[in-house]
Specification:
The chain is an alpha/beta fold. The chain is built from eight helices and twelve strands.
């Protein structure tokens, strides 16, 4: 019986370099821990390897839930509220030196030279992923999305496209005063939040658009198949598709 290889932090770091991911200046990482295989140190080792790269890395730190709305405003504590987006984003959230954007449902954590500039002003949005959000900052600054063992249903940049294309189903009609708590103050963030009761959607439909636009390549990091997506090209092609056909993603 062949014993499954156990990957170290350095193995992951070397794989990031050989795959070319380490060459990108800004990376938004959506990660499945199990996709890497057996990792010595688990999620923390993956985060260490990703943040050892000489670039800026962002992770989802979402806290939004189905009950969020005008009658049940969300509350997010920057230092204490865990994320439901997986073991790797949660390990990133609690890592020393992590920065976190100030949003009550769709915050991001970040590391690296440009993290602060990318995460700033999330509390000044009108919806979680609008043109003032870190998601659109990724587009403006020629970043990439890296889906480690994930498909496009984990690709939150699609929400940015939906919001900027103004599709009718995606956001709640009412504005909700969400709360972000820091060590020193409470911040009210007035947003139209995601409509958790919207029709079912299939984000994997965008794959064919991305391939045609040469916006996607696939590499391997340890056992994880990684989709690398050019954020600017993705935004342009998906947003334009949704403007032409607002129901494109609805099942």
């Amino acid at each position: 019986m062949v014993q499954e290889r156990i990957y170290s932090r350095n193995d992951i770091s070397d794989a990031l370099k050989s795959s070319g991911i380490a060459n990108y200046e800004i990376v938004l990482a959506h990660c499945s821990l199990k996709s890497f295989g057996q990792v010595d140190g688990g999620a923390a080792s993956v985060v260490e390897a990703l943040t050892m790269m000489s670039n800026t890395v962002l992770f989802p730190a979402f806290t939004g839930k189905i009950t969020d709305g005008k009658n049940c405003p969300p509350v997010m504590n920057v230092a204490q509220s865990p994320t439901w987006t997986g073991a790797i984003p949660e390990a990133a959230r609690i890592k020393t030196g992590a920065l976190r954007s100030l949003h009550p449902t769709h915050s991001l954590t970040g590391f690296g030279a440009r993290a602060k500039a990318l995460l700033v002003n999330h509390e000044n949005t009108h919806s979680p992923c609008d043109e003032n959000s870190p998601f659109y900052s990724l587009v403006r600054n020629n970043g990439i999305i890296a889906l480690f063992g994930c498909d496009h249903n984990s690709n939150t940049m699609v929400h940015c496209c939906e919001e900027l294309a103004k599709v009718p189903y995606h956001l709640q009609h009412d504005v909700t005063d969400g709360v972000v708590m820091t060590d020193s103050r409470e911040i009210i963030v007035a947003n139209r939040l995601h409509n958790w009761q919207k029709p079912p959607t299939n984000f994997n439909k965008i794959e064919q658009l991305l391939v045609k636009a040469q916006a996607l390549i696939v590499v391997k990091v340890c056992n994880s198949q990684v989709k690398i997506i050019d954020a600017r090209k993705m935004f342009d092609v998906v947003c334009n598709q949704l403007i032409r056909d607002p129901g494109y993603l609805i099942i």
